Amino acid sequence: MSNLILRTATIDDLNAIMTLEHESFPTDAWSAESMASELAAAHTTYFVLESTQGKLAGYAGLSKHHSSDQSDVQTIAVSPEYRGEGHGRALMNQLLSTAAKQLARSVFLEVRADNPVAQKLYESLGFKVIDRRARYYQPDNVDALIMLLELPDAPRAPLVLGIESSCDETGIGIVRGSQLLANVISSSMDLHASFGGVVPEVAARAHLEALQPTLGKALADAGVSLEEIDAVAVANGPGLAGALMVGVGAAKALAVGLGKPIYAVNHLVGHVGADVLERGEVEVPTIALLVSGGHTSLLLVRDLLDDVVLLGETIDDAAGEAFDKVARVLGLKYPGGPEIDRAAATGNPKAIRFPRGLSLPKDMDQHRYDFSFSGLKTAVARWIESAQTAGETIDVPDVAASFREAVVDVLVTKAVAACVDHGVPRLLLGGGVVANARLREVAAERCKANGIELRIPAFQLCTDNGAMIAALGAQLVMAGREPSQLSFGADSTLSVTTVQTLS
Amino acid sequence: MTRYILAIDTTAGTSVALLDGETVAAEVHHPSGMKHAELIGNAIAQVLTVAEAAGPQIAAVAVGRGPGLFTGLRVGIAAGIMFSEATGAGLIGVVSHHAIALELYTEHPELVQKPLLVTTDARRGEVYWCVYGGVDPHGLPVVLRGPSVGKHGELVEQLTDSYPDFNERSGGATAVWVGRLAERMVLAGVHDREVSALYLRAPDAAEPKPNQYGLGAK
């Protein structure tokens, strides 16, 4: 048997695949366009077999919609020179294990009635003929046999419901293992607008009111009922105490009512865990920079469940708070992040050199990875004041762009330094401030320059949400961890080293 | 199969009870006004265990809506909502002051002819109050005045004019009486699912003053 490499196909394989496609299916080959869209589709997984010299020896594709528990073998082909060596079986086994990983219960395929070799392979893998479609293959006028394989009832990944209420977002998410099924976020942001910042009591009241509708929508989105839930996860800190308590009380009663285990998980580690929903895992070690209205934290994650270290955090305002406060100084609305982003779009980021907090050599000993933004806010206010006194007109876009640059510069500089210092080639961003266009841009540039892989999950997974809590809970369940006792409380200053609160 | 009412009240302590009609099958009562979030889960689990009751046997969840301490109050209501969602049990909102009135009138039948002032400290020298005048034919406390928030001294002065023989009881609802009141409300057909919190007062947050400096300055 030739030594071949099996790997996931990419769009770069299209030409080689099309050559083999025409060779294998001379009368009814797919068009290059169809094949390209197959390779690119979210619900398909394609594999290629290639020689060590990079020559394509075979390919196969599987399709499965996330809402269905049925998979379909889309196509399979092995180059004539490699046939009879078990490569078709290897490709099929790869498809079947993929189907199992995607929690399929059954796999369907069609095979030409005049291809006994293929039929024999499928039968040996456990497929059974369940139907026959007359003259399915045209123009050859050949019947198709429909074959079905019922997959063994593999232990299904756990269905976990996560509740997040640490600040002003009521989030309820549902995941199956590492698969996102629902992520519903109800924000009380508008209620805080007139106060210029999150008011804890207002946020807590809003959580209580949002619970029932948010839960209902999450269940509807996921297409599951509460009885199917295997475990409940809840963020029990860090965050606003009164707000956290609503989620904790809700989650406990849900778990007791359902007779299911509960997992109390760390909100900040949840932000890191969100990445499993896009990648299937969190690649470690990684540095994580979490930036929101409530947090500015730099973490070193060597293991998502067992080894998370806080390298540094803000010693005063969170970065998001700084945006809100400076927006006020500039006469812009709340929340400040998007407003400043908009104003800064046409501004010159180098117009004014605002201070970079805790970046002077004297600060670097004690506060190498810490942040400080309150002085920056004051600096912006003073700058405007003196410009006004001098009778100058204030160029809001320039001030906004220069302020934003100062925040982004410090955030990215310290995050990249953490990567370099610890020899960690990965940076993961999380938190609502990740929506800031300039932060993403500068992080991308500097990570590239330093050979660091940058991960930014979709915004709905970056901002506070229940799916990340459910995802972290599911990781604990799958790792066989004990559930939390019902006696845990909300801890507004919970340390990131406590990934799960046991009691 | 017995069909229970699970009653939850966290307006003062953490109080949970399981009732079969007005008979208490199990009760957990933590009087301290702290640690509601810590205590609520085990309190619910314990009453279910003691009564050997399972989720499907809960016909309804009765929740004390307040008035009460902000953070604790929410924990009980949040728990009630979610337990109802989890088990499919109905949800019944109960005004906690009404439950206190029912308790007093039931435990002290000699007082049932007399008005009753129920108060909860609303801080800053004010109380959240409601005045009751006995019970109606369904056994439900009758509200004479309130609820409202005001200075206690002034309130007592006013009430003494109208109701010279009124009694006063302050705070401290228990789940048992929240559950009993819910049972009577069901029998009288006056129960509903409204469980929004009755807060002692509005949030303390003040809108920011105009900027002292900067472009937003007035």
List keywords for this structure.
heterodimer, A: 503 residues, alpha/beta, Aminopeptidase, Nucleotidyltransferase, domain 5, 6-stranded mixed β-sheet, 18 strands, B: 218 residues, 5-stranded mixed β-sheet, 4-stranded mixed β-sheet, 5 helices, 32% helix, 30% strand
Structure commentary:
- The complex is a heterodimer of chains A (503) and B (218).
- Chain A is an alpha/beta fold and 503 residues long.
- In chain A, 40% of the residues lie in helices and 24% in strands.
- Chain A contains 17 helices and 18 strands.
- Chain A has helices at 14-24, 32-40, 87-101, 116-124, 189-192, 200-222, 241-258, 267-273, 276-279, 319-329, 336-344, 361-367, 374-389, 396-422, 437-449, 459-462, 466-478; strands at residues 4-8, 44-51, 56-63, 70-78, 106-112, 128-137, 142-150, 159-164, 169-176, 179-187, 231-235, 262-265, 286-291, 296-303, 307-313, 426-430, 453-455, 500-501.
- In chain A, strand 16 (426-430), helix 15 (437-449) and strand 17 (453-455) form a beta-alpha-beta unit.
- Chain A is globular.
- The relative contact order of chain A is 0.11.
- The model of chain A has no long low-confidence stretch (mean pLDDT 94).
- Chain B has 218 residues and is an alpha/beta fold.
- Chain B starts with a strand and ends in a 30-residue tail after the last helix.
- The model of chain B has no long low-confidence stretch (mean pLDDT 93).
- Chain B has a single domain (4-188), classed as Nucleotidyltransferase, domain 5 (2-Layer Sandwich), CATH 3.30.420.
- Helix content of chain B is 32%, strand content 30%.
- Chain B has five helices and nine strands.
- The chains are: A alpha/beta (503), B alpha/beta (218).
